[in-house]
Write a structure and sequence with these properties.
CATH architecture: Alpha-Beta Barrel
CATH class: Alpha Beta
Strand content: 5-15%
Distance between the termini: 95 Å
CATH topology: TIM Barrel
Number of domains: 1
CATH superfamily: Glycoside hydrolase/deacetylase
Number of strands: 11
Helix content: 40-55%
């Protein structure tokens, strides 16, 4: 077909179309029908309730579980199963610098669980080691942050652990003091009455010491079940920290708070990753170890772990599971 023939055919086709206002009406109907067939429906704006629910699901916090901070080296007679969670003062200082660079707000446990709390990072210490008071707290105070220190009552005054005076001074400085049991026993092997005593024995001692309510607790060994949670509520706590790694989300239970365990080898890069709420590898590792914990039970698991790690005969036994 020649170019002239093409032009003639196009002219004939155009002559068949309506003209003037009829053409406009035809075009609008045609293009409107095509648009109705091909274009997706406009997205509806979420309701205020849906927006609030989405915000609640995305509000989250990361909780770090420290134990002790030493100046030069951990105590010589510490068993390896305990020393692996003791961090040098220099490393702890670098961790704080990394946290500050992340821009996350640092809160205590009681502050972070409030309904209107923004995304935050919570620094906690377990057991009541002296180094967490003598080395860790001055570094926290230097940057204007507060931490939550969970204390085991029967450890107070023992070699390597805090004194009543240290606890009182930390409370006056704005640190939150919490409960980490009376004797540090694994609670899943205790009766209900024994679990309550583990909570209330320490809680009452600390409240009498610092003259203020003690409302937060953490679990020795992260040992947790429904009975333990029920006893924690009965004892008057508002939150309960486990040792399960992960991110605590706003709609999660306040009595199953996840925490990231900090070891002597935890790097600055790991802390930076935790500040981004990226904890998948630690969660997977914990899931693998959960099988022997369930099979053996927490008390036997702790005994086996000690047998594997604590080979030195001169290391002291800190507590009975």
């Amino acid at each position: 077909m020649s170019r002239a023939d093409c032009g003639t055919n196009v002219a004939e086709m155009l002559s068949l179309l309506p003209s003037g206002s009829q053409a406009t009406e035809f075009s609008c109907r045609a293009f409107g029908s095509a648009a109705a067939l091909s274009l997706p429906a406009p997205r509806q704006k979420p309701s205020p309730i849906e927006s609030a629910e989405k915000q609640l699901h995305t509000m989250r916090s990361i909780w770090l579980m420290y134990h002790d901070v030493f100046k030069t080296a951990p105590e010589n007679d510490l068993p390896a199963s305990a020393a692996m969670y003791h961090v040098s003062r220099d490393r702890f200082s670098r961790h704080l610098n990394t946290i500050r660079a992340s821009g996350l707000a640092v809160r205590t446990a009681a502050e972070a669980i409030q309904d209107d709390a923004p995304p935050a990072l919570v620094i906690t210490f377990d057991d009541g080691w002296a180094g967490s008071f003598l080395q860790g707290l001055p570094l926290l105070e230097s940057v204007g942050w507060r931490a939550t220190i969970f204390v085991t009552r029967d450890f107070i005054g023992r070699p390597g652990f805090c004194t009543p005076g240290m606890i009182s001074a930390a409370s006056r400085a704005g640190m939150e003091i919490g409960v980490h049991g009376t004797t540090h026993r694994m609670l899943s092997g205790c009766t209900r009455a024994e679990i309550l005593q583990e909570f209330t024995g320490c809680k009452e001692f600390l409240e009498n010491l610092i003259r203020r309510p003690v409302v937060s607790a953490s679990l020795p060994g992260g040992d947790l079940n429904a009975t333990i949670i029920d006893c924690a509520r009965a004892a008057g706590f508002v939150c309960l920290c486990s040792s399960v790694p992960g991110v605590h989300k706003r709609l999660s239970s306040r009595f199953k708070i996840k925490r990231m365990p900090i070891r002597s080898t935890t790097s600055d890069d790991q802390i930076a990753r935790y500040c981004r709420f990226a904890v998948h590898s630690e969660v997977m590792r914990w899931a693998v170890l959960e099988t022997p914990r369930r099979v053996l039970g927490m008390r036997n698991y702790v005994r086996v772990r000690r047998w594997l790690l604590d080979r030195r005969k001169d290391s002291r036994e800190l507590w009975q599971p």
